[in-house]
Amino acid sequence: MKAVWNNTVVAESDNTVVVENNHYFPAESLKKEFFEDSIAHTSCPWKGQASYYSLSVNGEQNKDAAWYYPAPKDAAQNIKGYVAFWKGVKVSE
Predict the structure, then answer these.
(1) Can you say whether the dihedral through the CA atoms of 58, 66, 77, 2 is positive or negative?
(2) How confident is the model at residue 14 (pLDDT cuts 50, 70, 90)?
(3) What's the number of domains the chain is made of?
(4) Residue of 13, 26, 18 lying closest to 93 (CA atoms)
(5) Distance between CA 83 and CA 79 in Å, rounded?
(6) What is the CATH number of the domain that holds 86?
């Protein structure tokens, strides 16, 4: 699977985990040079508190375009250390 934004592959892995129709990529598959920590947080009743990354590619920024659960609840332990995308990031094979 590949995650592409602004015509650039920002993550690529053969080992994604699908939860609620989102592909979660292992953290080591991220191309770290495109990721910046965000102060944003949201909460999911069964997964826990999500943290976000913004993407910066070719001088453009996509704020809070990736999320992850640093300390997921028990029901979501399978996505600990994994990152998912939205906000126009195309995920495909």
Answers:
(1) negative
(2) very high
(3) 1
(4) 13
(5) 8
(6) 2.170.150.40
Q: Residue type for 6, please? A: N
Q: What angle do CA 77, 42, 10 make, to 5 degrees?
A: 70
- Taking only the tens place, the pLDDT of each residue in 20-58 is 999 999 999 999 999 999 999 999 999 999 999 999 999
The tokens for 88 are 């126009």
Q: Which segments of the chain are extended strands (E)?
A: 2-5, 8-12, 17-19, 22-26, 35-44, 48-57, 60-68, 82-85, 90-92
Residue 8, both tokens: 């650039």
Q: pTM for the full model?
A: 0.96
Distance, in Å, from the CA atom of 76 to the CA atom of 13, rounded to the nearest integer, reads 20
**Residues 33-38: contacts with CB within 8 Å, 24+ apart?**
34/5, 34/8, 34/10, 35/10, 35/66, 38/63, 38/64
Q: Which domain holds residue 21?
A: 2-92
